[in-house]
Amino acid sequence: MELPRQAPGLSFSCEGSSALSHHPVLARRLNTFDAVAIGVGSMIGAGVFAAFTPAAQAAGSGLLIGLLVAAVVAYCNATASAQLAAQYPTSGGTYVYGRERLGPWPGFLAGWGFVIGKTASSAAMALTFAAYAAPAGWERPVAIGAVVLLAAVNYRGVTRTAALTRIIVVAVLASLAVVVAACWIPGTADPLRVADGGLLAHGWYGILQSAGLLFFAFAGYARIATMGEEVINPRTTIPRAIVIALAIAAVVYAVIAVSILSVLGPDGIAGTPTPLAAAVSAGSWGWAAPIVGVGAALASLGALLALIAGLGRTSLAMAREADLPRWLAAVHPRFKVPHRAELVLAAAICLIIGVADLRGAIGFSSFGVLVYYLVANLSAYTQNSEHRRYPKALQVAGAMSCVALVATLPVGSVIAGMVMFAAGILYRGLRLLLAKRP
After folding, report:
1. C or N: which end of the chain has fewer Cβ atoms within 10 Å?
2. What domains does the chain contain, in order, with CATH numbers?
3. Model-level pTM?
């Protein structure tokens, strides 16, 4: 039987450092601003342009309550990740935390769910970018080109990843500012539309379903924790960056939600796949609608960039423990990135783009995200007073919320998620069995 243990060669006793005696290490090059930019770029991705439609379909005006619930759940999970990252400032995020606090199997399930689910999400994000940026019929080649380009940026080092992320985040926030301005020009917005039909018209189940949909738009703060081995002074930088990035994203989502509700109302949002563009076109600023398309394309690109970076670091951590092939644990001697893991993942994403259309079929990724954060909350709950920054009640609330949100997922998504984890359990079980043979 495997017992919880510290990963070989890892030492987390030194402030802001992680000594890896048996593995090549990544370089600490990210400051607080870089980490916040990566977190914001992950959260204010394509979700802000698309998540409000299904949320309005589920809850109507109650999506505002759903957004509040999603933000509270995200805060509970974010504080758990921040508290753990301060104690374990290394690559891998919840995969490492689960191994250290709960044992190898819970850690593996978190890592497996993240890598498999987010690989599919990356393909979908690339296709979303191409839907806005590519000529008709060229969506797949453009999506593959975007993956290759961003993988090349990541390959050259984390500072280049952070620099490109900052540029994208600024451009996306500028496009969202145009949306808000267009909604509130005189004669366009009607504050009475915000609560049209009543906040509780669709019931609490609909509100919880909208919260589940909007929570996944918030979930990008985990990208900061997965890159913990590359952050300067991680014990203070990571917790601060996670909370700041989440606060910025929550404010942006709230302002956008109220703005488009005031123009379109809940029925108008539910009836269009592009609610932000529809809200802009409804007023006298119709000329600004293309700016929304550019913002959506860049937001997809920013989320994809952060996803590829996070996937590489989690795969690196899993390879160090042989939960993925060990040769993926290589670190580039010059650029200090997990180059083999990033190249393999980029190839896998491109392959998925070439053979599947995942824009509406990645429900199992949502299942994997909730399992990931469930493990994070349970792991944080076991930390002692020396490493505790937040009350245990937040971790209990976070864990219960993850279970509750799973219950709101479509049955097909739950089944797909269970199949994904069954495949992972079979893979690891066979590896352990073979490892025991002489």
Report:
1. C
2. 36-365+375-430 (1.20.1740.10)
3. 0.84
